[in-house]
């Protein structure tokens, strides 16, 4: 028995002994954990809008939005890998294991949930919002553990997804920032879209933006005779 299987069975035995947690663990593993990571991305974006420094605001808003977009891209990249490896779910190869979620027919490696977790952890860490980033790390790692806890994945599946998601978002981050910063600045200049990148009262020209011509003063009146 290899280490991956042994760890899976150890966690599965732990799941049997902690039935009191099943009611929370199952929904968190299926949808609530992923939803929480998405909400954390939105929180990072919302908080970034209130930064007074225009250049830092543009960078952080772009980074938070890239975390969300990059996560979708990472999951898209994971899909062909998933079909190429074609690893069967552990509940189809191991008998008598505890399974707390519905069984699916798709393959196990890499885990989509693990990929999402890795992408959001790296993406929100790059946004420099340390409060949100640390909460995301805790939520992402808990989601990865929970996918094994409910019986849906081997540990190697979620670790592979975690690494893939983090790698995709981290490697593409400079390109995303280069392409996304002009878009964010353009949104800031449009009244209808400005709220997406700057909270009311915080918008100001970023370094390099032209503030426009100075208003002309009226000519002084000629002296009275």
For the largest beta-sheet, the strand count, sense and barrel status come to: none
Q: Please mark out the parts with pLDDT under 50 across 5 or more consecutive residues, or reply none.
A: none
Spatial separation of the terminal alpha carbons: 108 Å
How much strand?
A: under 5%
Number of E-state strands = 0
Q: Report the total helices.
A: 7
Rg, alpha carbons? 24 Å
Q: Strand pairing plus helix content: what structural class?
A: mainly alpha
Principal-axis shape equals elongated
Return the domain count: 1
Mean pLDDT, all residues:
87
Return the string of H and E elements: HHHHHHH
Descriptive keywords:
single chain; 225 residues; mainly alpha
Structural account:
By secondary structure, the chain is mostly helical. The chain has one domain (25-97, 105-196). It contains seven helices and no strands. Helix 3 packs antiparallel against helix 5. The termini are far apart.
Strand and helix map with partners:
Elements: H1 3-16, H2 22-48, H3 54-85, H4 90-93, H5 112-126, H6 130-149, H7 155-189
Helix pairs in contact: 2-3, 2-5, 2-6, 3-5, 3-7, 5-6, 5-7, 6-7
Short description:
This protein is an all-alpha fold and 225 residues long. It has one domain (25-97, 105-196). The chain is built from 7 helices and no strands.
